[in-house]
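Review form for a predicted model. The reviewer records the input and the model, then writes brief findings.
Reviewer: anonymous (R2)
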Amino acid sequence: MPLTRRLRALLLLVMLTASAPAAATVTCSATMTNVSFGTVDPLGALVNTTATINYQCTYSAGVLGNLYGVFARLCFSVGTGMQGSTVVPRQMTNPSGDTMNYQLYRDAARTQVLGSVDTPGVSPIGADVYFTILGVGTTQTGTATVYGQVPAGQTGLGVGTYGSAFTGANTKLSFRYNEALLSLGVFPPDCGTANNGTFAFNAGALVVPACTVGAGLHDFGGVSGLLAGNTDATSAISLRCTYRAPWQVGLDNGQNASGQVRRMTGPGGLVTYELYRNTTRSQRWGNTLNTDTFTGTGTGTTQNLTVYGRVPAQSPRAAGVYTDTIVVTVTY
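Model under review:
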């Protein structure tokens, strides 16, 4: 009989010991790949990209910890990035001081801005890690996706490499966990606000020069077949180039030229004419870079260039339509 009492007392002691806290320790860390947008065309469409957060957590405890499950909730907070930026929108700059707007999101639809546990209304990315019983000494790993976007319509973006650094001051890993005997527990309601680690990364994009060009008909109109005097006319070339991108517009000599003399062809043979860069028609418009082209710098908006044409006095020609084709070349 006394022996039975001792056995019962020992069993009670074991049960009490098993129900005590396991004195568990969970440690977590994270790294993140860079947010690389590649080449961004300010005159083109929006650009999307993704980056990956890699995280791991390790569960440590004594032998009795194997009777417990651990429920850990993690938050990955991202701040503003470079000094002077904001969260909405985030911004990065190039060496010339041009500013590019972009954003980081928590969802693939890019509707939920990625923020911080310290920023009301703009939430961090969350993840849950679960250690089941017999999990002491094990490590759980996982990934979370960050979705980036550079919106279209930023026509004022200049040429250059843009960047924003997210250092330890701009990222924060926060987590909390619950221990539960036989894993009969739940995850914490939140991650808390403690700074349990960082995951530095960079956001970057490249803007390269780009241009579009258009030209219309250069019409000299009705001209007397006698061609006794000069006949002048103008036309326009429309150009749109990346801000800060230097450009040169050249005109070739046409399909019927004789050396540097442009000529139109028609029923009466050939009619000479010329195209110029200035109103007094003293600067011929050619196709030799840095010599007789029209030069300028992109503004990100449409730039209109005037072509000044002249049919000089020459021998009479038969009535009819005289034409030539000029190729416009933009070098940038």
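Findings: Helices lie at 2-19.
Further findings: The domain at 211-331 is CATH 2.60.40.1090 (Immunoglobulin-like).
Recommendation: see findings above.
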